[in-house]
Amino acid sequence: MNNIFFLTGVNGVGKSTIIPHLKSLLSGDKFVIYDFDERGVPEDADRGWRISETKHWLSEGNLNSKNGKSTIICGFIKPSDLGDYNLTNNKSTEVVLILLSAKPEIIRQRLITRYTKNGVFDESKMVIGKTIDEFIKGNVWFSEQILKEFEDNNLPIIDTSGLTPAEVAKESAEIISAKNVN
Questions:
Q1: 105: domain range?
Q2: How far is Cα 131 from Cα 109, in angstroms, rounded to an integer?
Q3: Which of 4, 27, 66, 176 is packed most tightly, with the most Cβ within 10 A?
Q4: Which residues face 98 on adjacent strands?
């Protein structure tokens, strides 16, 4: 079965960092791996942009499926971003969401490290229309909301808090391989 996998989670959980590790673990003749943001992220990225990009990646995944490959997209989407999307035209393809999560203090520390210089925020820097401080607080808050949504829907979750990127990629590859059987 050729599926479409979204490895999702808030900023700082390791989605982009694991891509090279996933590529080394999962065969290029069976999988195509993308970074959700590789087409660029506008300064005012919002839910509308995210849903538009989700539709793009679903189309890409369907095309890859027709060519005998599964698609893995590493980037932030919420289960509700899929809306009423269904794959009735391709009954052999399933969309699988896997949450990469981390403890709030780990997310905060990773983002502080990413967005500070010598431990100080560059207050002139904005991330998707927010100050860095607002951006970090929003990601920490939302990390708990999306975790609950995945738990409530019994969807796969990988806690990246104490794992290396290679370990996160290995756990992700195991879930992907188990769900990608014929």
A1: 4-179
A2: 16
A3: 4
A4: 7
d(CA 54, CA 73): 9
Q: At what angle do helices 104-115 and 132-152 cross, to 10 degrees?
A: 150
Q: What is the CATH number of the domain that holds 141?
A: 3.40.50.300
Beta bridge partners of 97: 6
What is the DSSP code string of 52-71? HHHHHHHHHHHHHHHTT-EE
Share of the chain above pLDDT 70, in %: 88
21 Cβ partners below 8 Å, 6+ apart? 165, 166, 168, 169, 170
Q: How many domains does the chain have?
A: 1
Token code pair at residue 55: 């539709």
Please tell me the number of Cα atoms within 13 Å of 174 on its side-chain side: 9
Is it the case that residue 22 has pLDDT exceeding 90?
yes
pLDDT for 71 equals 96
Percentage of the chain surpassing pLDDT 90? 65
